[in-house]
User: Fold these one by one.
Assistant:
Number 1:
Amino acid sequence: MEDLVWFAASTLFPTHYLVMKPTDEYHPKSIKGICNQAMLRKAFEWAKQLSSNGVIYVENDLRAFANPTRMENIRKATSDPIQKIKSLCPQCGSPGFWIKDIKRGLPCMPVAYLPIKRLPKYGDVVSVGLRTWRA
């Protein structure tokens, strides 16, 4: 039980829930959503009784509602594409106008003096001064 308490503390328990299985990670039975000390003890006793080899497998509950770190990473992952869609091309208003790459060391020149044969289309890579944009 001491190892279990140490492991639980290292996983940010109880704010980050746990899953417990008897024997190994492939056991078909499990208790998910372990979110307090009482549930941890009860799940430990349950798994101990069902374990065929005396081993209890414990892992992080990675369901988003049970893991604030994962929830934050999901929020960050959805935020960037939304910002890209909201960013419009200043010339044509197409969504997705975003700085894709920065090339350092390019000579700086006013935009008005760039030799332009045609206006960029959506998806073209445009270099202006020290920055590269995807138009």
Note: The first helix runs from residue 2 to 10.
Number 2:
Amino acid sequence: MPDLPTPQNATEAAEFDESWDTVLSYADLCTAGSDAAVELATEAFAHGVRETRAGAPGRGAGRRTAALPHIPLLLGAVRDTAADWERRGQGHRLDPDLRLWLTSEQAARFTGPPTQRPLALRGLQDMQRPDAALLWLTEVESLPLPAVAARLELDPGGVAEERTEVRALFRDRCLRNHLDRPMDTQCRNYARMLDAVTRTAVADTPDDLSHHLARCPYCAEAAACLRVHGGQLPAALSGGVIGWGGLAYLERRRRAAEVRLAARRATCDLGRSAAPDTRRVRLLRGGLLAGAVLVSLVALGVSLMPFGGAKSDAAVRGEDAADRQPPATGPGTGGPGPTATGPSREPSGTPAPSVSAVPSPSPSHRAPDPEPQGTSTASAGAGGPTPSAPATPPSTCRATYDMTSEWSTGFQAVVEVTTERALDDWTVAWDFRPGQRISQMWDAHPEQRGTRVRVDAAHYNRAVPAGGSLTFGFVGLYGDANGVPKNITLNGRPCALR
């Protein structure tokens, strides 16, 4: 594994620091483990830096000289390095879906003739690098405009207007490249209509054009790139420039931006609360000094007073120990730990376990925090039913299934599960409708057999605190109908869908 290159100057050092996290994030999507992700990111980073410094064409016949901004260039290097791994016999370390994609026509477009390459990639390459960097950082990396202005040394007051201008410039480059592409008569006839209906976000698309876009992938790709005001531009850029995993990478960067923004706000609030005026500091310091003297006198008097009838330290410690319960390791934990004795995770492809039966108590073992499963219908004995028969307990987890987008054959969804108990690891499962299946997933590892889906935690988000949430997203396909899944469980326990 090659070492990371050494920065040659302060500007390059800043670029390295800003882009390493993005390269590692995409490499993690492309590989089957954390060690492989670090190795792939390191090798791709070194290759991308060498290509940037040399300014020489990359691999592949007819490829243009690299004119992409720093981050998209490095992400492309991750994709190319993954293809090299596959050719060198290291494909087993890559994501299985990526390996299939590398042999597809979509992957061949990135190294084929320039006129056949993805439209977003060609449009970004035809722009000046500062303009392309502004577009990528705001649309794909989801950085706030002040941060982008500081990174690119732009006027903070005019960066919003510049973003509008580079969006229009990108649209112009994509339209020109689309018209230059070899196309049949039908595509040529719809080209001008496509240009007209994508200029604004409120224009209606004629039915005949909609039918054509559903059948022609090239014109549909052009429509996504030309609609720069309808919210489709980030997905068009990430998918067209990166290729496989573009939507998953986009979702990860959005989350990272949200985390950075929340941390920045917390820091600002802390700074404001920790900066009182000088007079208030002096008054507070004087009050603390007087209070310390008073407390010392009281403590001296109390220490000389005899105490009788008070509880001993051992008794107090005993009461405290009785009030605190040890963490449960049985069925009530909500998640398997290293020594868990609760129910094991359900295997993929089998239906969820029934929750209508009550397990019979064992005379030799009792879980520290037993939790009844389902509703009891058995009698207590000859004397009739027990007056305090346990009712169905509330779910210890709540699930949210948010379908963020949908199109004719697929959809994108985000699943969030909130647990009342702390988890050391987790598995979420559900039943899809017939014809639904997962194509790509981020922040978790899916396995599907028939309509049954099992999702295991990634290596970096296994632990969830009590009251915390776990989240992952995916891109899926469907046949006749699309809808919300059923029987969502967390570690084998049913979750309430909200």
Note: The chain has three domains: 1-112, 120-269, 397-497.
Number 3:
Amino acid sequence: MPIRPENRGRYPADWPEISLSIRTERAAGRCECHGECGRGTHPGRCPNENGGAAYGTGSRVVLTVAHLDHTPENCDPANLRAMCQGCHLHYDREHHRQTAAATRRAAVEAAGQLALVEPKELPMPDLAETPAPPLPALAVACPACGSAPHVLCTSHGGTRPRRSDVHQARTKAFKAQQTATT
């Protein structure tokens, strides 16, 4: 993940070397997530490899290094984990929610719009215990490349699941199939 300019000073001077070592030597170019990201999409270790196609989406995998305690100053190898961008974003989602709320509050305060009453914190569901639902099965063949039903469309060289026009045609065929069966 890119380092925000205001946080650069929190990382050690040798962070590029530390990050490279974790991603290439220890992780051997593969995501080290074993489900702690909470995505619920991979049993065991995540199969994504740096530079390869991400499972499920076909997008290019970028291996990053996550601080498990969200503290950039703590670069103990036990606190660092090589993660693909998908696992890293999911792992950090609660932290991102908290920092976004703090940023919004600071902007309101800077604009002189302080609340007279502190807003109550709304209860948030424990996202780590509710994994993301599985993607729906693709029940029709792709009209552009002929990919079989339930198979990721391959008409785009693995750069993305499908082009908009192909997606629209496949969605139309899927809806027609659903209407015919009901």
Note: Helices lie at 15-26, 85-91, 93-110, 164-181.
Number 4:
Amino acid sequence: MAALLGTGGYWYFSPYLTLQSMKAAAEAKDAEKLNTYVDYPKLRGSFKNDLNARLAENLPSGDNELARRGGGAGHDAQPSLGRRHGGYDDPAGIHHSSPQ
């Protein structure tokens, strides 16, 4: 029973422990340790999905001329959004963005 409670407690608190470790690495400006906690391909995908969803919400839609032509500047900008977010989606971006 104690083992079950211990395992359940660790499972419940493991996100908190991970965040504490990430915070400590960031405060120590230890980019290599912080990088061990980040899944960059998933972060990139999530960032692009969120950005595309927000962009789609703000683009004109319906029966107006701008929507029929592709949504204006937002439509043209969507494919080029890849590297315009500060580089926080790769280890080099984390390392270079931390204050020295």
Note: The chain has six helices and no strands.
